[in-house]
Amino acid sequence: QVQLVESGGGLVQAGGSLRLSCAASARTFSNYAMAWFRQAPGKEREFVSAINVSGRSTTYADSVKGRFTISRDNAENTVYLQMTSLKPEDTGVYYCAADRLYSALKTPRAETNWGQGTQVTVSS
Question: Counting runs of H as helices and runs of E as strands, what totals does the chain give?
Fold first, then answer.
């Protein structure tokens, strides 16, 4: 398994930007597909974005498409989520996830690894 630590969350005004980072502790980080999820108060955790092991394939939830960009730096064992044009509805706790199967990230399984989460608050 891999340990994941998110950072970069904070308070930002609507229309602003934030970049989240997820640092991984694993010798085989490059063998893990990565994803971001978020959970707003009173709602279930939802899928945001995922990236495959090479970084050449990505997918996004419709709600963030065109505004968020996921990327990874395998040399630094880190995955990023660049968020722009933030909206109040983007508010929530953002979680990093890792799985050896890219196809499993949209529907997390028992084998999926999770970070502790980082709070993102977008004010109107």
Answer: 0, 11
pLDDT confidence tier of residue 107, bands split at 50, 70 and 90: confident
How do residues 65-92 score in pLDDT, each as one tens digit?
A: 999 999 999 899 999 999 999 999 999 9
Nearest Cα to Cα of residue 94 among 30, 5, 31: 5
Q: What angle do CA 79, 4, 57 make, to 5 degrees?
A: 30
Show the beta-strand stretches assigned E in 26-116.
Answer: 33-39, 46-51, 58-60, 68-73, 78-83, 92-99, 113-114
Structure tokens at 117: 């989460």
Evaluate whether 77 touches 87 at the Cβ level (below 8 Å): no
